[in-house]
Amino acid sequence: MTDRNKPVCPNCGSTRLKSMVFEETYRPRGAEVVVKLLGTKCAACGHEAGTWSQHDENMRRLAARKSFYDGLLMGEEIVALRKRYGLTQQAAARIFGKGKIAFSRYENEASYPDDSTTLMLQAAIEMPRFIKWLADKAGVELPLWRQRMRDDAAARRALRLAAEAATPAKASSALKNPRGKAAKTARAPAHAHA
């Protein structure tokens, strides 16, 4: 590979990049979960970064740790919920009745939510109306609520249309009358052709 085709350091422009492996340690319910992640380090300036393929592989490795969480939410699941509705960490803490830095700690997995908060977070992920109800009770606006509801409605419509298109019986139902009997085509009497 020529120097022109080699990846370059986003910090100094050097092509002297070396692949590296580093470890992130998580402690859900006291169990130690170590995830080996991929990265790149510049030999010229020491800047650490990663390629898109390393990022994709790291995301797979991070998701695979879920099996060790025994019902707890991973930090990225909590971040995704908060960002889905356009909430700051402080607003999310008010909605779920927690202190100002609770969500920062949950998202970084410096600590984990207690069982009742975990249950409320899971309910909010699975049932959007629940987070709306909690937010209304706490007097917190969900900035992206309307957009998410439009997105959800569009997704439901797309799924319904795809299901209808995939079902041959639906296509033939257009030929049936309201009672469900096959429509008969009008025939001219046999003697009319003479």
Q: What can you see in these coordinates?
A:
By secondary structure, the protein is α+β, with helices and mostly antiparallel strands. 45% of the residues lie in helices and 11% in strands. The chain has helices at residues 52-64, 75-84, 89-95, 102-108, 115-126, 128-138, 145-166, 168-173; strands spanning 17-26, 33-42, 48-49. It has a 3-stranded antiparallel sheet, with helices on one face. Strand 1 (17-26) and strand 2 (33-42) form a beta hairpin. Helix 2 packs across helix 4 (102-108) and helix 5 crosses helix 6. It is globular, with a radius of gyration of 28 Å. It starts with 16 loop residues before the first strand and ends in a 21-residue tail after the last helix. The model has no long low-confidence stretch (mean pLDDT 87).
